[in-house]
Task: structure prediction
Amino acid sequence: MCTCITLKTRDNYFGRTLDLEYKFNEKVVITPRNYTFKLKEGGAFKTKYAIIGAATVVNEYPLYAEGTNEKGLSIAGLQFPENAYYNEIDKEKINITPFELTPWILGNFSSVDELKKVIDDLNIINIPFSEEITLTPLHFMISDDKESIILEPMQDGLKIYNNSIGVLTNNPPFSYHEVNINNYLNLTPDIADNRFSNKVNLCTYGLGMGAIGLPGDNSPTSRFVRAAFNKLNSVSESDEESSISQFFHILDNVSIVRGTTMTKDKRWNITTYTCCINTTKGIYYYKTYNNNQITAIRLTEDNKNSYKLNVYDLEEHQQIKYVN
Result:
């Protein structure tokens, strides 16, 4: 469960809801330039570009859920159960584990177009981080201010899609979501017309009736359509405050309320945090389930040139402004 979107006003924005039934000790983590990542298949690389995103840090290794680099390239991993397939090592390919993919892409590439030049050689491999931290089945949305693509590692190969909608949720595969959204082509934010019959005088009795049929449940397919409708019809001023407010409003519309979605093992799935990253300026905004005040962390020059990870705890306690 998760929803990821892009939005462009004056600046470019990328973000997601993180929907889980547990916390994973996530923090906002900034990885500086020239930070060394050792690869499971052997070898290592140093980051050309600094990275900001949400991650849990284990032995100085940031396990990113999503992130953006200083050039504005962004990636998010979303759950893709029963479809994601990770391969064995192929010596003819670039072998990267799922948890290495985010730092490898953001640390080495400045744009989607640059990444596309090597993506056919990518092999996502089936090696866990450790015995205690197993692999999560994921597919990935990768975006910059010009385009967005989807990566889906599946048993019959790595699927790569152009994502003109700028939205990703979970199962089924992205190809299904692209077809399914055609079922809703008649929806409109405008006042509804009477298409039922010219033999009866039907009229609207309230605003919003042009979007009757927009799905409201928490399933991945419904969240995809709902996020796409709200994002693609979004109207926002271009200043920073208006843009981030609009972005959070779009994701609020697909957020999971505790008590509405239960897992197979009888635990409540909720939106543990929602983030919006200004990829143009390198600012990570977020709010959590228990604190809906927006908190911001900047990717500064000091962060970019640090010799270590910069880690910021999430502000989890509800912030309320009392005016009297």
Observations:
- The first helix runs from residue 98 to 108.
- The two ends are 40 Å apart (CA to CA).
- The mean pLDDT is 96.
